[in-house]
Specification:
Length: 185
């Protein structure tokens, strides 16, 4: 099918509480080198990736991928409906954390994509018992300190990014560091 406005399509799918894998690509196939994958659960976007058609290399992930797809204009789309899709339908993110997949082998979309909790839209981090006992000023960087202070079980990743006026991908990396240290979950 075809849409001029991905944002409106996503709103419609949200209102109709659709679940499944939404695949989108440029309407003009001759100039397209990418394909977008959006996993929906009851109309809510859970994961989003833009990948190269050849090789399956991940170009963008999650919020960054969704924003980029919305700017692409006319798109062809297909929704493979269903409540549960195996993670193998989406390519694995690059191991080095690069949004353009530098250093990733070209083994393609058959690899497993396992998003971290921060990659899921609407995730609200909270402090662990260890994090509750930590004195915030003992964190090394100012960015980590600012993000940690805003983790209160009520601020989402997107909310923290908005409050700190930093890109969501930067906040996700900071929160990943805090989660790896056992300070948040």
């Amino acid at each position: 099918m075809y849409t001029k406005n991905l944002e409106q399509l996503l709103r419609f799918l949200q209102v109709s509480r659709q679940s499944g894998l939404l695949t989108v690509e440029k309407s003009e196939q001759d100039e397209s080198f990418w394909r977008g994958f959006i996993r929906l659960v009851e109309g809510n976007v859970k994961t989003c990736q833009v990948c190269r058609i050849t090789g399956g290399q991940v170009l963008f992930r999650d919020d960054e991928a969704l924003r980029w797809l919305i700017t692409q204009g006319k798109l062809d789309w297909h929704l493979e409906e269903g409540g549960q899709f195996p993670d193998a339908l989406l390519p694995q993110p690059p191991l080095n954390g690069s949004p353009i997949g530098e250093g990733q082998n070209d083994s393609g979309p058959q690899q497993t994509f396992r998003p971290t909790p921060m990659a899921l839209s609407g995730w609200t981090p909270r402090r662990t018992q260890k994090g509750m006992q930590l004195q915030a000023r003992s964190l090394g960087s100012l960015d980590h300190l600012q993000a940690f202070i805003l983790v209160n079980g009520q601020n989402s990743v997107e909310g923290i990014a908005r409050l700190l006026r930093k890109p969501p991908q930067r906040i996700i990396r900071l929160l990943e560091d805090l989660r790896s240290a056992g300070l948040i979950e």
